[in-house]
Amino acid sequence: MQYKRLYAGVFIALTFLVLFALGEGFWGGDGKAVHWTKKLFYGVCHQLPGRTFTYNDVPMAVNSRCFGIFLGLLIGWLLIPAVKPLTAGTRWTVGIFFVAVMLQIIDYSGNLFHLWENTNQSRAFLGWILGFSASIVVSGLFQITTKNKDL
Amino acid sequence: MEEINQNEKNPLSTSWPSIVIAGGIFSLISFVLSLLFGYQQINSEPSGAIFSPLMLSGVVICLVTCVAGAVAVWHYTKEVTVYLTLGQGALIGFLTGVVIVIFSIILNELWMLFDPGYTEKLIEATIANVEAMDMPASTKEDMIDSMAESVRSQQSVLQQLFWGIPITGLLNLISGMIGVKIFAEKKEESL
Fold first, then answer.
1. CB-closest option in A10, A42, A97 to B153
2. For residues B40 and A107, what is the distance between their CA atoms, to the nearest angstrom?
3. CA A49, CA A61: separation in Å to the nearest integer?
4. ipTM of this complex
5. Shortest CA distance to B175 belongs to which of A12, A78, A29, A131?
6. Which of A81, B61, B79, B178 has a 20 to 30 Å separation from B96 between CA atoms?
């Protein structure tokens, strides 16, 4: 495996990302002031309580789709050592990634235009697919290849 | 080959234009979108719809800013060299995220000079919309607190930097690595 330090660094960052996303129910708080984990995700998530899972009966710091994405990223990242021989030098992972992106857009649009109503579970599952595919799409780049050594 | 050797000498210095261009463009796009959605929210009657302009802006801006790292890598492969390592792509992505946060803060602060009452008007319009929603009172209160704090947080420059860089940087770091997979050719790296 190459880029070991990069792999380890991103793994640690993604682990904390998921733990921070659990929010006040995991990290504790007085319930009065806005929790620091919420401040951390202001820029990337709408954090609407009605569209968010709870942890210890407290809404998480991110909505269900974002939590699914972060969890998918972490689980996909964990599997990189196992899947990299299968994905190295291939492009099919890019196709799966774009399908996952399209799924989010279709699901979001369908809900927006009242074609169907998505739930926390469905949003988290689709987000998980996106996060997982995002990790898998880069997995092949961690594989040491013969071509690489020749360069 | 000569081109590759030049980039190996100082790959970061050659990537700054891509970082600044992509970061600048995407922060400008997200700033303009947030203003458009913001003023739409301010000038519309409270409908009680969960998909308010402010919420739409949050989703769109999030997607837009997360793409920037991959776009910076694409620009680098077009303008400098297609030979880019995963580590360089990750660094370009992370720094693009940092640039987006910094530029966004500057643009927001400049807009406050132009329209000082924007934030308060946006908070009032947001609260009015949530109050018109058909949901339990406790959920409404949570939503109002969350949204109002979200808008008010834009007033503190240091808070925006401190809270904005880690997550935006990490998401763009990953986006930068995806950019390497899609746009770059692989080469050896001593990481």
1. A42
2. 24
3. 9
4. 0.90
5. A131
6. A81
